[in-house]
C-alpha cells in the first residue's frame, strides 16, 4: 500500500484538470477484511493507484463481500456505504476523502454565480482547514459525508443525554451552540433535537450538578449522537441549583410546581423533620383545614380530590401522626411535581390536583447511605450496586418514638394518648441493555394511635410495582407498569365489656399503565397510552370481641369498579413565542357486581319510602357505566425572554368519593365508588397567569388567577351515621362547588439571603341543595366550605452565614376556618334544644405561626468517609395559642364555648443527619 497523503492536495489539483478515463471492471472477494486492505487488493487487480490517510479509523472496518466483473466505482460505493469516506476517480487514480465530496467541475445548482465569495488562492477551493484537535477538549466530531448533489445547508442532530454512572436520562439539560446563538434543552426523558448549519459548531452542554461538556461538531447529514455527563459533587456544600435560564417563564404548563427535596432541609418544619407535604403547604394555593389535620385542600378542592402518587402507585392516606408527617420518607424522594392548574392527560381520577412523587435512583457504582436521628423520628436509607453498572438496590426505613410530644398538646384527650408510625421502601433497578430497564419496588407504612385508653386505631398504605422501560428508538420511549395499592384501617375497641369489637375497612387498587413518548419533530412531542384500574373495596366489617357480646357481626357487601382511560397529549411549539399543550383523555368507569342495589322510583327523592325494587347483580355484571371526554389545554405566549402569559383549561372526572361526617379528614374516613345512585364528580378549571424573571433568574415573580366549578361531590346530611350503612345514598347529598382566587409568589433563588414569599386570596364555596328538606343546607344557597380561608400568607427565608452555618425563618398567616355557632336555645315538648346558625356562618380566630431553624454542617473534606449536619428548629417560636377547633357544651343550662389547640407552646427539636 502506498501512503502518499503528503502530496494529496498537489495531485488532486492536477488531476481535476484532466478528463476522467473509463474505469476498469474486476472480480474480487473479501472475507472479514479491513477496508484499507481491500484497497490494496483492488489496486493490484486494476493497476490503479489509491491515495488516502491510513490513520482514518473508518479504514479499519471489516468487509465481507464478493463481486464479479463489476466496475471499481460500484465496488467502492459498497465498501464505503457505512463510512464517512468518499472517493474521486481521475487518470488511473482513486483519491479517498473523508466527509467531503470532490467535484471536477463547478456545479451551478449548488452556488449562486452572482455572489461567489472571494477565495484565498494559496489553497485549493475544496480545502477546508480544521482546528488542531490534539487536545481532547478541542476534538472535532465529523458526522456523515458530503454526497454529490446534496444541497442541504442544515442538518438535524438528536439523541439522549445520560448520567455517566447511573445511565439515567437527564432532563432540563441546556445545549447551547456558542458560535451560532442556538439553544435547546432535554425533555423529561433526556431527549433533545437541534438543527445545525454547515460548518463548525461549538456545542456547550450544561446540567445542574454536572461537569460542563464542550464538543465541536461538523455535520454532513442528519445524525443521532448521545452524550454522557459526569456528576460534579462537592460533598455537603449547599447545592446551588443551576437551571435553564427563565425555565419557569418558558415552560408551557401553568399551575405546576416542582421542587427537589434537598430544599426542605433549610426550612424549619414541625418536629425537626424535612417533609415534602409541609413544604408544599408553604406554596400558594395549597392549604389544610387546620393544624393537626391530615387533609390537603388545593385551590378550593376537597381533601379527597387530590391524587398522591409514589412512582405512579396511589397513596390513599399521605400523612402520618395526625398530619404532621408525610407518609413517604423524604430521604427516599428525589423530586415532587404538583399539578394544581394544568394536569397532563396521562393523569386522571381526581379533580383538584396531582402530587407526583418520584423516588431516588439507586447507585450503580458503590454503597452509600444517609439517615437522621431526631427527638421524634429516626430514619436510615441506603443504596448499593447489585451488579456494578447494571443493577442497584435502594431502600429505607423510618420510625417514630413520639409519645412524649403528645404530652405537649393543649388537649386533654390527645395529651393522654399514644401514637406511633413506621414506613419502609425498597426498589431494585436493572439495566438489561441500553434499550431496556426493569424496575420493581415495594412500599409499606403503618400508623397506630389511641385517642382514649380503650380504642386503638390503625391504618396502613401498601404499594408494589413492576415497571419496564423500553426504547424502541431515539424517537419512541415506552413504559409498561403493573401496580397494586392497598389502604386499610381498623378500630380495636376493648373496654372489657360486652360491647367490645374490631372494625376493618380496606380498598385495593390494581393498575396497568402503558405510556409512550414520541418525539415526532422539533415542533411536536406526543405522549399517549392507556390506564386501567380495578378497584376492590370492602366498605366495612364489624366483629364482636366476645362470644357473648351484645353486638352482632356485620359486613357490608364488597364494591367493585373498573376504570379505563385512553389519553394523548401534544406539546406543540408553533414558533419561538407561542406554544401549546393539548391533551385529550377518554375516561370510562364500570360499576360491577356482585352487588345488591336499591332502585328508587323515577322522579322521586332518594329516600327509604321511595324504593321501587332491590336488584341483584351477578359477578362482573355491569351495574352502571359512566364515561366522558376530559379536555386539557394549556398555552404559553412569550412577551420577552424573561416574561410570559399562560392560560390553561382542564376538565376531570372522579369515580371515587371519600365518606366523612367530620369537618376535616380523619384516618378512619372510608371511600365509596360511583354506582347506580352515586354519580361521579366532575370538575373544570380555567387559570391565567403572568410570569416574570429579573436579573438573570435571581428574582422570579408570578401572579396567577383561577376559577373552578365542581359537580356531584359527596357530602352528607347532618346526623348521618356512615359506619356500616347499607344505604349511603339516602344520607348523601351530591353538591356543587365553586372556587376562585389569585396567587402571588416572589422568589429569590440565590445568594446569602434566599427564599420566597407567597400570598393567596381565595374563596371556596359549596351548595347543598338536595331533593328533600333534610338534604338542603342553608336553604340551598352557596356557603363557605370547611376549608375556606380567604387570606393565606407564607414567607420562607434562608440566610447563609458561611458554608457551614445557616439559619431559616418561616412565617405563616391564615384566615380562621368557618365554623357553625349556637345562637340561642328553645323549648319544645318540655325539652330544651340548641338553635344553631347557618352552617359555617362564623369563623374561628385567625392563625399565625413563626418557626426558626439553624443548620450546622460538618467540615467539607472531600475524602472524609462520614459527613453530617445538625438541625435545630423551634416550631411555634412565639407560643401562639392557635385554636384548632371551637366547641360548645351546656353547663347548668348555659351554653359555654371552648377552644382546643394543638401546640400552644414553642416546640424545640434537634436532629442529627449524616451521610456515608
UniProtKB/TrEMBL annotation:
Cross-referenced InterPro entries: Beta-barrel_TonB_sf, CarboxyPept-like_regulatory, Plug_dom_sf, TonB-dep_rcpt-like
Keyword Ligase appears in the UniProt entry: no
Signal sequence interval, chain numbering: 1-19
Gene3D superfamilies attached to this UniProt entry: Carboxypeptidase-like, regulatory domain, TonB-dependent receptor, beta-barrel domain, TonB-dependent receptor, plug domain
Keywords: Cell outer membrane, Membrane, Receptor, Signal, Transmembrane, Transmembrane beta strand, Transport
Pfam families: CarbopepD_reg_2
Annotated compartments: Cell outer membrane
Family indicated by similarity: Belongs to the TonB-dependent receptor family.
Name of the protein in question: TonB-dependent receptor plug domain-containing protein
